[in-house]
Design brief:
This protein is mostly helical and about 200 residues long. The protein contains 6 helices and 2 strands. The chain has one domain. Helix 3 packs across helix 4.
Length: about 200
């Protein structure tokens, strides 16, 4: 995402350069005003949108619902192994008990790796859906308010932005609106499918 945004900034700078040159014959104030009118840039705090929006909250609940029990079970197994590791410090513990502990730890490590892999795959899909919504929302807000470019203020390239350039709240509202509309479309599709199934029966 950062690469895309940096590319947008680069295009912005490239576009502004020729404009400045074209108005070099005009007085400095007039040229700056014309450039400002042509290159209207907005900023969005992507981190805020990614954590406070309705789809972000829904994604968190979805992850907890899907993986919460498994995560808790793995954590309990890990705590049990820690306690068992303490008992192995006793020199009287048999080699068989030590091997049993090693096998249990290897088994837990494998389960943990598989769990992390599943979680990461799910997170990638959720992030892709989120990015699609955010880009669409940013486009709608920028177009409605006459902004030529919108950049992520959390990407590290923005040192200062006037409050009038901050579109975070507007984009957040638009993301929630698009997410709600998307959810309604899914519900309608399910209802249509259910009605069709009932008629077939």
């Amino acid at each position: 995402m950062r690469t895309i945004l940096l590319s947008a900034v680069a295009v912005c700078l490239f576009a502004v350069g020729p404009v400045v040159k074209a108005f070099a014959a005009d007085d400095k104030t007039g040229a700056e005003e014309k450039v400002a009118q042509i290159a209207k840039i907005g900023v969005v705090d992507m981190q805020a949108v990614a954590t406070k929006s309705a789809p972000a909250e829904a994604a968190k609940k979805q992850m907890d619902s899907k993986f919460g029990k498994e995560r808790t079970a793995l954590e309990k197994q890990g705590e049990a192994l820690k306690k068992k590791a303490e008992t192995l410090k006793n020199p009287k513990i048999s080699e068989e008990k030590k091997l049993e502990f090693i096998r249990a730890k290897q088994d837990l490590d494998q389960k943990t790796r598989n769990f992390v892999r599943k979680v990461e795959q799910e997170e990638v899909k959720l992030r892709q859906d989120m990015v699609t919504l955010v880009f669409q929302a940013a486009y709608e807000v920028a177009r409605a308010r006459g902004f030529n470019f919108v950049v992520d203020i959390t990407a590290g390239g923005v040192l200062y932005a006037d409050q009038s350039m901050d579109l975070t709240d507007a984009v957040l509202t638009e993301v929630n609106k698009l997410y709600k509309a998307k959810g309604n479309k899914k519900d309608e599709a399910k209802e249509t499918k259910g009605d069709k199934k009932s008629k077939d029966e």
